Amino acid sequence: MEEPEDPYYVTMYYPGSVYVDMSDVVPPEVKPKPAVPAKPPNVGAPSPSSPFPPQGQGIGGGVGVSAPPPSGIPVPIGSHGLGHGGSHAIGHGVGHGAGHGGSHAAAHSGSHGHATSHSSGGGSTLLGYIGIDTIIEQMRKKTMKTGFDFNIMVVGHSGLGKSTLVNTLFKSQVSRRSAGWARDEKIPKTVEIKSVSHVIEEGGVKMKLTVVDTPGFGDQINNDNCWEPISKYINEQYEKFLKEEVNITRKKRIPDTRVHCCIYFISPTGHSLRQLDTEFMKRLSHSVNIIPVIAKADTMTIEERQEFKQRVRKELEMSGIEFYPQKEFDEDMEDKSDNDKIREAMPFAVVGSDKEYQVNGKRVLGRKTAWGIVEVENPNHCEFAQLRDFLIRSHLQDLKEVTHNIHYETYRAKRLNENGGLHPISSNDTQESNL
Description:
InterPro entries: G_SEPTIN_dom, P-loop_NTPase, Septin. By secondary structure, this protein is of the alpha/beta class. Helices cover 28% and strands 14% of the residues. Mean pLDDT is 74; it is low at 8-15, 41-120, 177-181 and 429-435.
């Protein structure tokens, strides 16, 4: 008898061997030929004449594709398989050549072979897009629902245009709307500290703006300690916020009435700061963000304005007055570069007006003089546009963060230390805060 060509079946023809026709029995695991690739997943349906299942399930999630032996070749009972079942298991599963499509093999493979091939399209490895960048969109939607709070205070002599400038900043009559004053009427003189709140909406973004107007600063004959009412008002807002924070059952969103920005108006004398101006900014610079501006800058020539600005910056530096943005609060080199440009331009020389005039076929905000129209938003006429961009477009959020993280924390630490680490709260205060 001639020996078969296949070397795997040489031992089947030795004398004494028992031969069984395995055409109706599922074969045991046999070692696959390295040159034969695994079948693709979509090729799995067995032919009607073949009794062998097309695929086998590996233990641990591995899926094997069995390679049946040639039909008509007998296989001896008790032959030992190599544990791969004619396929490479996906992952590290132990392959069973028989699979689950039919009956289990009569003889279990004695070895546990680990598949060396890895899945190229398996779902166990996260290599695709996850979507972490959508956090910004989530924050935007949540913030737009709650809205923003911004509280601004104006301080300065009477007649410097404090209320007018605020109206010009937000292009709305926010400083007198509650009093019912018309646009063409004169703004009444402020005789006490009062706050007016409005909700301004632009592009779907809502902001609750609170303008705190103060009486003419330094208008009295005796101006001793005239800054105390303003300092008291600022600290009272910190105290309200602190009481809400230390409550056992506090509100989900604490109303924020803290002053985020204090615009201090400097008279356009062209000489130097008054001692009262220096004293006020020195006392309040550690409790609120102070932004000095030169009011009614159209009363000075361009040369006088530049000289006056340099003189004011020098006097503030010699007096140790820190105005916003402070150098120690710059977070990185980019912030430092941007803030250095702002500090070099301060104090901003501004002109405020809520009246419109026709200039070159366009309606513009301005002040009419004997020699022409001073356009408020024209950078060649004044620095109002720079102040507006600085306050609203670039540093509004930073003003709020500095107020909360620096000025409020300083007040909070001082109050808690004064009371032994625990702020006293009466039952009346608790009931009022929960209303």
